Amino acid sequence: MPRDVHAPATATRSSSPLDRRLGPIDAAAIVVSNVIGGGIFFVPIIVAQMVGTSGAILWVWLIGGALAFAGAMAYAELSALRPRAGGEYVYLREAFGPLAAFLTGWTSFVAGFSGAIAASALALADYVGRFIPAAADATPIFTVPLPFIPLIVSRKALVALVPIAVLSFIHIRGLGPGRIVQNILAALKAGALALIVAFGFMMAFPGGGEPAAQSGVVFVKLSGILLALVPIMFTYSGWNAAVYVSEEVRNPERNVPLALGLGTLTVIVLYVALNALYLHVLGAAQLAALPGRLLDVVGERLFGVAAANAIGVFAIVSLSASISAMTLAGPRVYYAMAQDGLFLDAASRVHPRFHTPAVSIIAQSLWTVVLVLCGTLSQLVSYTGFAVILFAGISVASLFVLRRRHPDAPRPFRAWGYPWAPAIFVLACAAMVVNEMIRNGATALTGVAIIAAGIPVYFVFRRR
Predict the structure, then answer these.
(1) What is the structure's pLDDT at 361?
(2) Please, which residues have CB within 8 angstroms of residue 259's CB and are 6 or more apart in sequence?
């Protein structure tokens, strides 16, 4: 039977079949890996085209980071109030009811996590193709003629399936091996970016010379900043990743907020530093004019053509870390849904030996395989990309609802800057969603249709 969604906010589960083995560093590593993906290597070009001056570019990245941090602090209070697996599914269920919660979980399963994993795995196969050309060969080997969604098997698809299978297996085997692999990949990713920034500035200013591009502050139209914030917030998305594993974090009331703050601040510092490096090496005009492959261009400018192979290795590690983090986080949402009777019954069970939501991990990996093998379905990510911002804004809005509904509930952590910081975050998310609807109406409406398709699915589960 589904839980009572109007249960008092002080109620907590007395025990959990999931292991509480994650510390604040483990959870922060999930945040860092989830946030830092391919976006930071092409979104700065888009932002430079929208904003145009070096100083304004850095300021808009700082504004985006401040919004992400405000959202993280709101989630920190929610996670301390409800330290359960599932993240925003739990918060939306208790603030706005089970349908709203189901739709965020539905979107996460159909496109949010699964689609992002599929896209990252295919990109990883492309980078492997730098070293083994056959690995990036998309020529079909054979086709499985399923109705509506024929599955096309190619060498590239098979290579993309390898990290999905390997990392799913590792995370099924328990938090012990899972967190070790995740921490190593996250450390390699963040460490490599820090080295790129450090050595990049050393190469850009040999002997302590002046920067290649000055970054004086120039006034920019508010409309340009608002437009630039949309891709920037997409690039920062994932700052909430630690809340999905709250039920597996030791002392979650303290450690989940700590992980959210530490992980988000780490990403903000790296992102602003990388953009400063891009601007010093290229300048705003050259940055805006690039056709793509930003890191390759900067790497070759600083370190020579030989840097391309090192960048390829970094990309493989970075994408692997992202796949690992999403493989760990996503299934906790479906596990929480299944406990409420809103997903496959088997997904509510925990592996008796490894204490992981193994069925949820397998379900996500199987759908991801379908997305990898069916190229057209990979467009789900672009169609529902705005939903990341939409549901994040609604989740932060639930903070106001739960404070009003349960004013006396114990709150081990209170959101910094309440009510102004979360209110600004919610308004910014609303503005970005409306802007996306106006600018990319057809794509956004398709995304809305995909989200709405979850409504009849919800009633099927409820009737059952």
Answers:
(1) 97
(2) 24, 25, 26, 27, 28, 30, 31, 242, 249
The encoded tokens of residue 433 equal: 């969603």
3-state SS track over 307-342: HHHHHHHHHHHHHHHHHHHHHHHHHHHHHHHHHCCC
**Site of tokens 């594993």:** 245
CA distances from 458 to 98, 296, 329, 336, 394 (A): 9, 45, 22, 14, 19
Q: Which tens digits make up the pLDDT trace of 303-312?
A: 776 777 788 8
What total of structural domains would you count in the chain? 1
Output the average pLDDT for the chain: 86
3-state helix, strand, coil in the chain (%, to 5): 75, 5, 25
Q: 390, 384 in Cβ contact below 8 A?
A: no
Say how far apart CA 340 and CA 185 lie, in whole Å: 33
8 Å CB contact between 403 and 55: no
User: How many Cβ atoms sit within 10 Å of the Cβ of residue 29?
Assistant: 31
The token pair that represents 288 in the structure block: 């805006």
What are the pLDDT digits (tens) for 392-445?
A: 999 999 999 999 999 888 889 999 999 999 999 999 899 888 888 887 788 888
H helices present in 374-453, as ranges: 380-383, 386-405, 420-439, 441-452
User: What is the C-alpha separation between 262 and 250, in angstroms, rounded?
Assistant: 16
CATH of the domain at 306: 1.20.1740.10
Q: Is residue 456 part of a domain?
A: yes
Give the residue numbers spanning the domain of 268.
24-463
Label residue 108 by pLDDT band (50, 70, 90): very high
Residue-level pLDDT at 119 = 86
Q: Does an H or E element contain 367, and which?
A: helix 358-373
